[in-house]
Amino acid sequence: MAEDYFLETKAKLEQQIPEYNSPEFSKMREAIKHQLLKKENDLKLSIRRMKTLILGDWHTLEQRQRLAEIKNTLLKNGFYAETIDGYYDVHKKGGLSQTEILEECCITHQLIVFVDGKGPGTLTEQNYLATEYLFHQKILFFINTSKFDEMKDDPSGYIKSFPAIIPYAEGTLKETVLTFVKLRIYRLIGIISLQSKKGRGLNSTNYQAWSKRLGQKQD
Amino acid sequence: MSSELKTAYYAVARMKQLLLDNNNVDLLLFLAKYNPNVTRKRIETELGKDALKDLDSLKQFDLIVEDSKGITLTHEGIFQIDGLVSMLA
User: Fold this and answer.
1) Which residues of B touch A191 (CB under 8 A)?
2) What's domain A54-200's architecture?
3) Global pTM?
């Protein structure tokens, strides 16, 4: 079974953090506060606050391990990531439907990593996201290169619904996801920083969304 | 998306301030060291009553949860504390 980042990290923290009331604990606390005050660490805090949702086939053990490995790779590299199964409460009657849970997660996560698949749950998610244009700017769609090569000459195929299509070679999915998540998260943080510095968008009370300025209606 | 980025920007600024306030770093390090299920009573006894002041804010940031057994770090809480400790490396 894929390693569990959270169990391992918690165990590591238990070792690293000194006993409470020891001078070493106080030193660690003061050192952390000192680092928090440094401007250059704002970037690290911002990056770690961005959330990525990983979607894909998860019915077989192999499929679940694949998603867990992607999640662990992102977490170990400082990018917070979740798979959607954590949001399902199978014991709760009358709970949210799959679509409702997906919608909630898409709202709360800044990036969606969608791994192409053919499970019924994946197809439901795919069909939902294909028509929810508001989420399209968040989605990175990963597809095996061999399948992409079969489909790329047919623009009527389902993959056309995703604006960011990223083919990956067999055995390179984790690394490819990490590369593109990193690029996209840094881009988002860059936008936030620039808007903050220029007083546009974030800090300007006069800011208008581009769609309004251009007189366009949103779908 | 821009309003969402705005929300994310202010959330980071608020979280940073929350971490600098009161004994919140102490509390998070304490939970990371002694979790699971540290009770309010234990926090009050060992860290002082002031340590309980920002519990609700820490919950709002999804860093901790509280149930009948006590207070526990969430996955995001573990991740963020790992980030804080790694800043010392």
Assistant:
1) 5
2) 3-Layer(aba) Sandwich (3.40)
3) 0.87
